Amino acid sequence: MNALVVGASGHLGGEVARLASAAGTSTTGSGGWSRLDITDRRAVLDLFASVRPQYVINTAYRASSWTICADGAANVALAAVAVGARLVHVSSDAVHGGRPTPYLDDDAPTPVYPYGAAKAAAETAVAAIDPAAVLVRTSLIIGDERSAQVRLALDLTTGRKQGALFTDEVRCPIDATDLAAAIVELASSDYAGLINVAGPEVLTRAELGRLIAVRHGLDPATVPTCTIAESGMGPRPADIRLDSTRAVGLLETRIRGAAEALSVA
Ligand SMILES: NC(=O)c1ccc[n+]([C@@H]2O[C@H](COP(=O)([O-])OP(=O)(O)OC[C@H]3O[C@@H](n4cnc5c(N)ncnc54)[C@H](OP(=O)(O)O)[C@@H]3O)[C@@H](O)[C@H]2O)c1
């Protein structure tokens, strides 16, 4: 088997590549082993034609770039279809606008900010180009210091960065290794369409930050916190809980809660 991991120099992509290789899959990573700009459609088609992967996992993104998130995802889907590869596309809970009740797998996107809109556009493009693709909606990705969420909490707590973690922004954080294992499992299944894969524990960003502080030997009381309104930021989806019941029933991978994954349970 031959897998191509798009975004393998990143946190999640690196974990997917590591697990796929450990499972005996021959793995090519883009961004790391083989530089690729997914906004360059010709380059994507050429790389896929030369690697001829059976599986493609697309973890590549940049939150500030519509072109990378949306157009890039479409280019990857076109290239995967062109070589007959099975595609797992990684999406985000940011496609949702926020509400107190959990979101189910097939709930339509209701984005409220540009990143969420770009990820929603990517989902629509990928599903139209490749109806057999898996679209994994996930939440805050935690783990070691490769995690942007972990680095943010540590930088704010130690004063390397100014700002605060929200006490009223709710998510379902997931460990990168658990998510990568679920993605590898989904790649070898025949599942098609949207699926939520997020952690079982519902936490505010502030609560998550305190867990991260404890994990790193810092005083959790020193984690700076505020509300979204106090931060003065524009509209953000406050409460997004992903219901991952379908994934739990389908997958052998056990998804740990944030406290257990950070070993502070
Ligand atoms: N991080 C989270 O908390 C979170 C939450 C929900 C969903 N997600 C989703 O999870 C996925 C992975 O997130 P992550 O935290 O692992 O991201 P990450 O560590 O920032 O990695 C992103 C990867 O995308 C690559 N990339 C960026 N622009 C590219 C381009 N034009 N062409 C090719 N590759 C490009 C980067 O390569 P270079 O570094 O070489 O530029 C890097 O390998 C994304 O789809 C994201 O939307 C993340």
From TrEMBL:
GO terms (BP aspect): dTDP-rhamnose biosynthetic process
Associated pathway: Carbohydrate biosynthesis; dTDP-L-rhamnose biosynthesis
Job description of the protein: Catalyzes the reduction of dTDP-6-deoxy-L-lyxo-4-hexulose to yield dTDP-L-rhamnose.
Pfam families on file: RmlD_sub_bind
PANTHER family, A to Z: DTDP-4-DEHYDRORHAMNOSE REDUCTASE, METHIONINE ADENOSYLTRANSFERASE 2 SUBUNIT BETA
Enzyme class, broadest EC rank: oxidoreductase
RmlD-like substrate binding domain ranges (all copies): 1-255
UniProt entry tagged with the keyword Glycoprotein: no
Domain of life assignment: Bacteria
Protein known as: dTDP-4-dehydrorhamnose reductase
